[in-house]
Amino acid sequence: MANELVLIIEDNDKNRKLARDVLQASGYRTADSETAEEGIRIAQERKPALILMDLQLPGIDGIEALGRLRADPQTRTIPVIAVTASVMTEDNQRIVVAGFDGLQTKPIRVRDFLQAVGDAIARAGNRPA
Ligand code: MN
Fold first, then answer.
1. Distances in whole angstroms, Cα of residue 26 to Cα of each of 18, 22, 29, 48, 104
2. Domains plus CATH for the chain?
């Protein structure tokens, strides 16, 4: 399977490259952006199967970006997994409340990460239109 397009929004070069390499090695196509603003434009144009959203970004942050994606009919149904360095429980709760489809903490653990990506895409594919 795989071959789906995954959009990586991450301002840290190493983290972005790692996510890209891991996804491509598993057969996904990737697009990436260092800012949420550009990422949102890519999402509107290319309709990725999934977005990986770093929360701390220059410009608008990942939570604000999620709100904009959900407010736009073109991007509203794309699943979005939050990726954060924070492991605080309160933060995790805030993220769930904010409506993300999952949460991955950095540094990513490859097996977990790929499982979460695959699950989120599968769930979205099974969702009634
Ligand atoms: Mn960041």
1. 12, 6, 9, 16, 18
2. 5-125 (3.40.50.2300)
Distance 94 CA to ligand 1 centre (A): 17
CA–centroid distance, 96 to ligand 1, in Å, is 19
- Kindly give the pairing relationship between strand 80-84 and strand 29-33: unpaired
**Closest to 46 (Cα-Cα) out of 9, 18, 82:** 9
Distance (Å, whole) CA 86 – CA 29:
27
The per-residue pLDDT for range 55-108, each reduced to its tens digit, is: 999 999 999 999 999 999 999 999 999 998 866 677 677 766 678 998 898 889
Q: What is the pTM of this model?
A: 0.92
> SS3 of 68, please?
helix
Ligand 1 centroid distance, CA of 122 (Å): 27
